[in-house]
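Weekly puzzle thread! Below is a chain. First person to post its structure in token form gets bragging rights.
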Amino acid sequence: MNENLIAPTQPGERINEIDIVRGLALLGILMVNMLFFNYPVFFDRSPTSFPAGLDQVGAWFIQLIFTGKFYAIFSFLFGLGFFIFMERTLQKGLDLVPLYRRRLFALLAFGFIHLFIIWSGDILFTYAIIGFILLKFRDKPVPSVRKWIIGLFITATILNFIFGLINGAGEYFSGEKYLLIMQEMIEGAISVYLHGSFLQLLSFRLINEVPYALIGLIIWIPAVLAFFLCGLYAGKKGIFKDIPGHLPLLRKIRNIGLPLGGLFLLIYILVESGFWPVSTLLRPALLSASNYIASIFIFPAYVSIVLIALQKDFWKRLLSPVAAAGRMALTNYLTQTLICIFLFYGFGFGFYAGVSVGQGIVLTLIIYLVQLFWSNLWFKKFRYGPMEWFWRMLTYRKKEKFLI
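Winning reply:
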């Protein structure tokens, strides 16, 4: 077989709009994750859990604009990337399944290290697992994919509601005892993260945090698979092959998605703020389900807004530097973790639980701008991001040219 056929996507083959959307998603993901880097998993990050003032305003800003929407975009792009990978692999006459499985096993290894050793907020491990399920949908026609998307969204919504009920039941039936237990867990986590050694941190996370992430797969699998399939659906429909030709559809998605998503965010606001009084038992369920449904409608509207904007020269010039960050999204995602654990954990600067929401937003913007700068600088000399290059070598089992 010609070795030149067994090659990853070359820089000149990339779709710039996808890289820009992915680069913007990195900002949204870091904006949400900043709270998770700063506080333990047991901490309530709902806006009203913060004191009134700038912190609460910042928490509302993150919740309404970012939470749930940008991991959905990232997941959507994963599914779209699968379609592009599949299409180009088949065009070269290669066997898709073993090649993509190698790609997923490599991602699974990255995610395992990230989740179990570095940070329990990892998404790569989940993506890899669900990626194996995504392979089963490669030959399904568009109508079938659409039905699966709807069914999975309904399933994930129900699961969000059920898990919310379980959380609410803990507080409802335990009362003050529940709150005291949670407070003790938070204080214990803060103590370990500020004063524990790396091995103590690792032990604490494996016992207290990683199980949360693994149990969460019950919800994550249908939710993320639905977003993956949205990307596969968009690929099969050819939207990104002819964005100008799909502008009427994109405007329709924007015009429908934002109001419908806003309606469910309004439900979230009313319940969270207490204007719609509900029992302690139902409150977490309504909050979880309404936020998730809002994300279903808002994330495609966000993507549509960016794609429509990129048809204008002004926005194309303004956002073009973001593409470099999107081209090395895996590297930047992992780098965000390394930067933040060094800033927050005791073996670094020890800012854990000491950064306000507002300061976290500023810190997010600073880290992101630095990533934009180094991503653009990087591609002046290199063809791929470092982790992307390594991932490609593991996928294709051949050395890929690194320098330009």
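Puzzle host: Confirmed. Bonus trivia for everyone else. The two ends are 26 Å apart (CA to CA).
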